[in-house]
Design a protein that fits this description.
The chain has helices spanning about 10-15, 20-30, 45-55, and strands spanning about 5-10, 35-40, 40-45. By secondary structure, it is of the alpha+beta class. The chain has one domain (about 5-55).
């Protein structure tokens, strides 16, 4: 079974949508994508990445 993760790292998020880590942080700061802190790691929700891509 190929499961899709609920969250991905900043680097993985950038690779998924084809932008840099800096752009991912800018999108988080602009509230265009959702990030959560787990311990010291910042993770981006796949749901917010899908919504961003779907919105064009």
């Amino acid at each position: 079974m190929n499961s899709i993760p609920l969250t991905v790292s900043i680097e993985s998020a950038g690779n998924i949508i084809g932008v840099s880590r800096t752009m991912i942080y800018a999108l988080i700061n602009a509230k265009r994508i959702t990030a959560v802190k787990v311990n010291r790691r910042t993770l981006v929700t796949m749901e917010s990445l899908r919504a961003l891509v779907d919105s064009g």
